[in-house]
Amino acid sequence: MIKIRIKRINSLAKLPARATAGSAGCDLCAATAEKLLIRAGETAKVPTGISVEIPSSDLVGLVFARSGLSVKAGVSLANAVGVIDSDYRGEIVVALHNHSPNDYFVGPGERIAQLLIMPVVVFEFEEADELGDTQRGDGGFGSTGTK
User: Fold this and answer.
1) Which of 79, 85, 28, 36 is nearest to 56 (CA)?
2) pTM over 0.85
3) Helices (H), the chain
4) pLDDT tens across 62-114, in order?
5) Can you tell me the distance from the alpha carbon of 141 to that of 104, in angstroms, rounded to the nearest whole number?
6) Measured distance CA(69)–CA(77) in Å, rounded
7) Which helix (H) or strand (E) is 68 found in, with range?
8) Cβ(63)–Cβ(114) under 8 Å?
């Protein structure tokens, strides 16, 4: 098991935790003293009050939306997936976007996103004049059909 060191930088912070034994991600919570308004169609940065030490450049922290918040309230990550690089030591801040027509209040301690630690494949680019052929080739944006 890999140990991830975590630092509480705000007294309101809750440490990330799995909701169930089978949960892949650990819930990140809002570290706010009062409700935080996210108006319809707007984005807000929500502090979590924690920072982490990812121990290797072979690992990355990925912040994903919570499906319940996305489906029920229309609130999800503004950047689709947040990336926490192994050399970042600042606070984890979650950019939430309100896609709904209604204002949304994030409550103190509310579970707002989930954090996964995943492996990184280290690679380098090699410029080439040609790339290998495939059946698909350069077809994109629906080129393989819908059924």
Assistant:
1) 85
2) yes
3) 67-73
4) 999 999 999 999 999 999 999 999 999 999 999 999 999 999 999 999 999 99
5) 34
6) 10
7) helix 67-73
8) yes
